[in-house]
Automatic annotation (TrEMBL):
Residues 20-69 form the F-box domain. It comes from the Eukaryota. It comes from Rehmannia glutinosa. PANTHER family: F-BOX PROTEIN, OS05G0482100 PROTEIN. Pfam families: TPR_27. Signal peptide: none annotated. This is F-box domain-containing protein.
Length: 240
């Protein structure tokens, strides 16, 4: 992207911020990277940055920034129609291939519209972009409707998440995000309402509770998958 000559920004209208001096020595790529990180952690902070200076406002419109913006604060099913600005913002996220946008579409596709094909298309793109929540969601969907091989692979991936404190924390965050979104919508997919069971001998394995999120005693990989599905299955509003 070509930034306008910095002299145009010497003094902002009604503001004493001298953007030219502030950003003169910083390459656009670095500003864009910083803004992308801000956008990834807080949508509000990104908009505040946009309002603070014309240069930031311009760079924040780049595809790279929109690709990483977090949509966590945006309700998945708005209670009232979106205004023009909100709709334009979401459209830009979609055009920029924001993986969080694709993840949310996949959740709606699968759990509300029961459209597996569309969910998989969105997830495939988001996973390729490294969206970890989409990898987790792919495992959950495959556990619910995949063939034996895909179920086996998903059980293994979920089990691997528990191998270190770091990946366990990621698993927990992914689960929390999915549950938060499911609670905002009507789930119409009966597979989550009556989830399958993967372990053939659960009575022989240790389970504190199907809702316990920190049960480290479970060693059986199939039981880990069973518990994961049941935690999610028990925490949403369903509608058939
Ligand atoms: Zn088991």
């Amino acid at each position: 992207m070509t930034r306008h000559p910095k002299k145009n920004y010497m003094m902002m209208k009604g503001s004493s911020i001298n953007c030219s001096t502030t950003f003169d020595s910083i390459p656009n790529e670095l500003i864009s990277e910083v803004l992308s990180r801000v956008a990834a952690s807080s949508l509000t902070d990104m908009f505040n940055a946009k309002l603070s200076c014309k240069i930031l406002n311009e760079i924040a419109e780049e595809k790279q920034v929109y690709q990483r913006v977090s949509l966590d604060k945006f309700p998945i099913v708005p209670w009232k129609p979106l205004n023009e600005k909100q709709q334009a913002f979401l459209n830009k996220c979609q055009q920029s291939e924001n993986p969080d946008f694709m993840y949310r579409q996949a959740v709606l596709d699968y759990f509300n519209k029961t459209d597996l094909r569309s969910a998989c298309q969105h997830l495939e793109k988001a996973v390729k972009l490294g969206h970890i929540g989409s990898q987790y969601l792919t495992c959950i969907i495959l556990l619910l409707c995949g063939d034996d091989e895909l179920i086996k692979a998903s059980i293994k991936i979920l089990s691997d998440f528990r191998k270190s404190k770091f990946t366990k924390r990621i698993l927990k965050l992914c689960r929390k995000k999915l549950i938060r979104i499911l609670r905002q919508m009507w789930v119409k997919n009966y597979l989550l309402i009556q989830p399958p069971t993967f372990c053939s001998t659960p009575n022989q394995h240790q389970w504190k509770s199907q809702w316990s999120e920190d049960d480290d005693n479970i060693k059986c990989e199939a039981c880990i998958a069973d518990r994961e599905i049941r935690i999610i299955s028990s925490t949403y509003n369903y509608y058939l």
